[in-house]
Design goal:
disulfide bond; immunoglobulin domain; Ig_V-set; Ig_sub; 3 helices; alpha+beta; six-stranded mixed beta sheet; single chain; Immunoglobulin-like; 199 residues; rod-shaped; three-stranded antiparallel beta sheet
Length: 199
């Protein structure tokens, strides 16, 4: 006796649903990575993935169109240069690695199998700016030392000029103090006039 058509369709639909649930994808839904670092986009299945099963990774753009970034069909075929397969199908792992992470890599990704009725998982990758410490390079150090030498040299020259001008002004004051005293009528007395006559 055969199975009625409606019952057969219901059994077939139930089988597909059961297969879909058994092969559902486990994945972390949000990953944050720093620019120029490495980001692991995990895609884990509850069971090992049979040999010959095709895995696809796609990036979902802002306008909801999809772009394949990697297909695994017994070997990985990446379509983007910084994406690499790191999964192990015997363990149910279909993860990929993005390295180095760029700002253009930010967005939504989906992973799943191509032929079986498996739920795909969406993963969001956020990319943060790289924090860099400004370390002086050799040219910066040389420029800094040269600037310091110039500042010290100019300071030394200014100090030397100031000392010379002080020295000249103090010598001039001493010279004026050594002049002979003026006579009462404002004239300078000659040496002979100031000496007393000898007898």
């Amino acid at each position: 006796m055969g199975i009625p058509t409606q019952h057969g369709a219901a059994i077939l639909l139930g089988t597909f649903i059961a297969l879909g649930l058994a092969g559902s994808v486990l994945a972390q839904s949000h990953i944050t990575a720093e620019e120029d670092s490495t980001a692991l986009l995990p895609c884990l299945f509850e069971e090992p993935i049979p040999a010959g099963e095709m895995i696809t990774w796609e990036r979902i753009s802002a306008n909801e169109s999809t772009e394949q970034i990697l297909v695994f069909d017994e070997k990985a075929t990446p379509y983007i240069g910084n994406v690499a397969w790191v999964g192990d199908l015997s363990r149910g792992d279909a993860s990929v690695l993005v390295s180095p992470v760029r700002h253009v890599d930010a967005g939504q990704y989906s992973c799943g199998t191509f032929f079986s009725n498996v739920q795909t998982k969406t993963i969001t990758l956020s990319v943060t700016s790289k924090v860099t410490m400004l370390m002086p390079g050799p040219s910066t150090i040389v420029a800094g030392v040269a600037l310091m030498v110039i500042v010290v040299g100019v300071t030394y020259l200014l100090m030397s000029r100031r000392r010379r001008s002080r020295s000249r002004s103090s010598r001039g004051r001493k010279f004026h103090q050594l002049e002979p005293p003026a006579s009462p009528d404002g004239l300078l007395l000659s040496r002979e006039a100031t000496e007393s006559p000898r007898q």
